[in-house]
């Protein structure tokens, strides 16, 4: 073969190889999220803007999330949404990695209460940031405008004899003991002493006397509210629950008590198994844009970390959830309370 033809053959082979390759390879991102956190149009915009393919896997419980991220040591996913209380075990097992806060430029746009990450329990460890706040909901107090004369100022109103049989509370051990501890003046409602446990249990027995029933879902609460002369509701699902009640035609108000309201805070975190950490951080930064954040509020009734929720005030006292001292003990005591044991038993 002549030199000329050899050169031509090589050129054609190179051209064929170039054509067989994509002009610009697309990155891929594997996201684990809760329903409403990654709506299709929001995902499509990210894919277009960053030339990436996004695969979203939805979870419906903390246990489900743990199984997915913990499986294969986090190697199957890149970025995931997790609340601050749950985040700790991911950090402990090194399933999540530190985030470069300098890559999250939209953090500067977040509301003041989210500007100082060190002030939010669980986000920073050993000077490293492990998650960026995204969505939250307080567990405030919902009141029936037709049944309550004055706007309640404290969660203690649920114990008011005036509302006996007209209170809806949530069937949970952890939150109820934390609320009781908060009202008793505990220094840390998530870390009750033995003496505080006893006092809190007695308070919850008294609450049981005032409650019509303990609901387990927002839908159940709406039905109970609609079918009874309910005065007060402990809003375990917060603003989502307010939205559902209002859509059902309930004339309600919603307040953050003066002692503060427990609140969960969901954040974006990066998995140890992330194939492209920079793309994962781009996702986090993108989700803090106004369009994505406002979708949480308008479409799903959740408060976001960029724009103030319509019913919120900047000085509302919010107490972010933390891991509790003894979940098993709280559950055992709560089961006794629900079974009907009297004050003397505690």
Report what the structure shows.
The structure is a single chain. A hairpin with a 2-residue loop joins β5 and β6. It is built from eleven helices and 15 strands. 37% of the residues lie in helices and 20% in strands. The longest helix is centred in the first third of the chain and has 18 residues, at 3-20. α6 (194-210) packs parallel to α11 (327-339).
Short description:
The protein is of the alpha/beta class.
Helix content: 25-40%
List unreliable stretches of 5+ residues: 1-23
CATH architecture of the largest domain: 3-Layer(aba) Sandwich
What characteristic shape results from the CA principal axes?
A: globular
Mean pLDDT: 90
Mind telling me the CATH class of the largest domain?
Alpha Beta
| Rg value | 25 Å
Briefly note the CATH topology name of the largest domain: D-Maltodextrin-Binding Protein, domain 2
List the keywords.
about 350 residues, alpha/beta, D-Maltodextrin-Binding Protein, domain 2, eight-stranded mixed beta sheet, five-stranded mixed beta sheet, 15 strands
Give the topology:
Blueprint: H1 3-20, E1 27-34, H2 40-50, E2 52-59, H3 62-70, E3 79-83, H4 84-92, E4 96-97, E5 124-125, E6 128-129, E7 132-138, E8 141-144, E9 167-170, H5 174-183, H6 194-210, E10 211-215, H7 218-227, E11 232-234, H8 238-247, E12 252-255, E13 261-271, H9 277-287, H10 290-300, E14 303-304, E15 318-320, H11 327-339
Parallel strand pairs: 1-2, 1-3, 9-10, 9-11, 13-15
Antiparallel strand pairs: 3-13, 4-13, 5-6, 7-13, 7-14, 8-11, 8-12
């Amino acid at each position: 073969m002549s030199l000329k033809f050899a050169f031509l053959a090589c050129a054609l082979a190179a051209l064929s190889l170039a054509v067989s390759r994509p002009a610009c390879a697309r990155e891929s991102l594997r996201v684990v999220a809760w329903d409403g956190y990654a709506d299709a149009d929001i995902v499509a915009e990210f894919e277009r803007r960053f030339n990436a393919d996004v695969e979203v896997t939805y979870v419906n419980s903390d246990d489900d999330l743990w199984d997915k991220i913990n499986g294969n040591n986090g190697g199957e996913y890149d970025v995931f949404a997790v609340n601050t209380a749950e985040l700790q075990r991911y950090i402990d097992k090194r399933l999540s990695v530190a985030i470069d806060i300098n890559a999250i430029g939209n953090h500067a746009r977040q509301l003041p209460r989210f500007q100082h990450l060190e002030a939010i329990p669980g986000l920073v460890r050993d000077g490293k940031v492990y998650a960026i706040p995204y969505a939250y909901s307080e567990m405030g107090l919902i009141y029936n405008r037709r049944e309550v004369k004055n706007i309640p100022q404290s969660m203690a109103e649920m114990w008011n004899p005036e509302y006996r049989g007209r209170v809806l509370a949530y069937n949970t051990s952890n939150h109820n003991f934390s609320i009781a501890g908060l009202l008793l003046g505990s220094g840390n409602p998530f870390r009750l002493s033995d003496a505080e446990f006893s006092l809190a249990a007695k308070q919850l027995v008294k609450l049981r006397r005032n409650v019509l029933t303990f609901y387990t879902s927002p839908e159940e609460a709406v039905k109970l509210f609609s079918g009874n002369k309910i005065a007060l509701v402990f809003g375990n699902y917060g603003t989502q629950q307010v939205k559902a009640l209002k859509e059902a035609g309930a004339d309600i108000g919603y307040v953050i008590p003066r002692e503060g309201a427990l609140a969960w805070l969901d954040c974006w975190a990066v998995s140890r198994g992330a194939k492209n950490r920079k793309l994962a951080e781009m996702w986090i930064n993108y989700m803090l844009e106004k369009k994505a954040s406002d979708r949480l509020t308008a479409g799903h009734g959740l408060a976001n970390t960029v724009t103030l929720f319509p019913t919120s005030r900047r000085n509302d006292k919010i107490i972010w959830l933390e891991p509790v001292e003894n979940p098993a003990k709280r559950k055992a005591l709560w089961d006794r309370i629900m079974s009907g044991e009297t004050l003397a038993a505690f």
